[in-house]
Amino acid sequence: METSDILKRVRQIEIKTRGLSNNIFAGQYHTAFKGRGMTFSEVREYQYGDDVRDINWNVTARFNRPYVKVFEEERELTVMLLVDVSNSLDFGTDKQFANEMLTEIAATLAFSAIQNNDKIGVIFFSDRIEKYIPPKKGRKHILYIIRELIDFKAESQRTDVKQALEFLTNVQKRRCTAFMLSDFIDSKDYKDTLTIANRKHDVVAIQIYDRRLADLPDVGLMKVKDAETGYEQYIDTSSKKLREAHRNWWSERQEKMLRTFNMCNVDNVSVRTDGDYVKALLNLFAKRN
Known about the structure:
- The chain is of the alpha/beta class.
- It has 9 helices and 10 strands.
- The strands form 3 sheets. It has a 6-stranded mixed sheet, sandwiched between helices. It has a two-stranded antiparallel ribbon with strand order 1-2.
- Helix 1 packs across helix 3 (98-115), helix 1 packs parallel to helix 9 and helix 3 packs antiparallel against helix 4.
- The mean pLDDT is 84.
C-alpha cells in the first residue's frame, strides 16, 4: 500500500473509531474497566463489617488491635492489545475482511483508552511475537498504532495464542487490561497459559471471523487454500455431507474455545465480518458492569 493510501486509511479509521469512542463507548468503557486494578493505600483500625481478609496482621500484632488494609482504584489503567496478524484473518466474503474489522475494533478500543487517560500498547503475534509496542499515551501514539495495524506485514503465517499470552505475562509487570483480537484458530491448547495470564491481568477475548468459516456455501466445485499452511485442494460444496461435516467441525471448535474461556473466567465476544461490532462491544461492556 502506498504511503498516501495508508495515511488516507489512517485518517478514515481515526474519524470513524474516535467518533464511536466519543459518542458511544466513553461511559461504557470506563464503567466496564475502571477499578479492575486496585492499589494499596493505607491502613486503618478494623470496623464492624470490614472484610477479615483485608486484615494487616503485621500492624495488628504491633498495636494489639485489628487493622485493615485500605485499597483504592487505580485511576490510570494500562491497556494491551494482543493482535493476531496470521494469514487466517486475511479473509472475508461480505462487507469487509476479518483483519479490516480487527483494525477498526482495535482502534476503537485504543481511542476509548486514551479518552480514559489510559496507556495503550500492542503485541502483534502469529506463531511468534512479530512486534511489541510498549504502552504510551496520546493521539500521536494511537495514530502510530493504527498505521501499524493497517500496514503490518507478518513474517510468519500461522497462529500460536499460547506464545502471545506467555509474552504478555513476561513483558507486562503491572496488572493491565489485555484485549486479545483473533479468530482463535489454533490447534494447540492454551488453557493453562490463559489461566495464568488472566490471574495476573484482566484478559478479554474478542473473536473475529467470516461466516463462511462457519457455513460453506453450496456453489459446486471450489478451490480452497489454507491461509496458514498454503495447502490447496478442490472440494465439492454441492455435497450436503461435506457441508454438514464442515459445520460440525466449526461448531465443535467454537464449543471448545468457549469452554476454555469459561474455565479460565475470561470475558469474551464473537463478531462476524458481516455483523455489527459496535453492538457486540456494547454487549461485552454491559456483561462486565
